Amino acid sequence: MNDNQLERYCRQMIVSGFDIEGQELLSNSTVLIIGMGGLGCPAAQYLASSGVGKLILADYDTIELSNLPRQILYTENDINKNKAEVAKQRLLLSNPNIQIKTITQKLDKKSLQPYIAKADIVLDCTDSFDSRFAANQSCLLAKTPLVFGAAIRMQGQIAVFDFRYEESSCLGCLYDKNSCSEDSCLYSGIIGPITGVIGSMMALAAIQLIVGNYNLQAFNSKLLLFDAKNWSWNKVALTKNQHCNECSGIVHNLEKTTS
Ligand SMILES: [Zn+2]
C-alpha cells in the first residue's frame, strides 16, 4: 500500500476488526453491481471510494432527466448517455486507484454467469424481477454472496444471501417468482433518499462480506425493512424453503475464475 492509499483509507483502517488487512481484502476484491440506477449509484460510489479493487458495473440503460433526483452520479449533461459508462468516469475521478469494467448490453441468465463467476460479491440493484431472479439463480450456482436491495415510494428493503453457506435462503424463498408484479418506481414513485439509504446499506453489506467483520447469525438470510413514514427498521429472519423452485436441489458446479 502506497502513501496515498495509507492516507486515503486511514479512517477505515483504524476501525477495530477492519485494520490494514481489511483494506487489503477490499483492494483484492471484485464486486459486480447489476443496475446503475438509484441503488447502484450510491452503492458504487461508496465501494469505489472505500477502495474495492475492481468494480463491474452493468447497465444497458441511458440517463433520463427523471433519474436525476436519485441517481446522484449523473448530471443534466449526461442525459441519453449510458449509465454504466458515465458512472465509471465519475467514480474514477473520486478514486483512480481502482479498476472499473462496464457491461452495457442487456444480460440474461446465461450471459450473466461469466461475470458472476469473476465476482466475489454481487449487488442486485435492478428494478426488474426477471433480472433479480437471473442474478439469484446465477449466484446460487456459483456460490457467490448476493446482496438484494429494493426501494419504492417511502419504503426500502435489503437482504444478504450468502450462498457460500448451504443453509442460506434465496430470493425465491422470499418471493414467489410467478406472483411477482413489476411494481417499479416507474409506476409507483420513489423519494430519492430512500434509494440512498438502501444503496448505502448494500455497499456496507458488501464491505462486511469482504472484510468479514459481521455476526453471521445476525446478518445472513435476514431481511431488513425500512419504513420512512413510521421511521422504523424491522428485521425478519428468512428460512430456507425446502420446496423453493430456485434453491432446492441446486447443483453447485460453476468454477471460480480469477481474472
Ligand atoms: Zn430459495
Question: How is the topology of this model organized?
Answer:
Elements: H1 3-8, H2 10-13, H3 19-27, E1 30-34, H4 40-50, E2 54-58, H5 83-94, E3 99-103, H6 109-118, E4 121-124, H7 129-142, E5 146-152, E6 155-161, H8 171-174, H9 185-188, H10 192-211, H11 216-219, E7 222-227, E8 232-237
Parallel strand pairs: 1-2, 1-4, 2-3, 4-5
Antiparallel strand pairs: 5-6, 6-7, 7-8
Helix pairs in contact: 4-5, 4-10, 6-7
Protein architecture, described:
The two termini are 21 Å apart. It is built from eleven helices and eight strands. Mean pLDDT is 93; it is low at 253-259. It has 259 residues and is an alpha/beta fold. Helix 4 links the parallel strand 1 (30-34) and strand 2. The protein has a single domain, classed as Rossmann fold. The structure holds zinc ion. Residues 169-170, 172-173, 241, 244, 246-247 line the site of zinc ion.
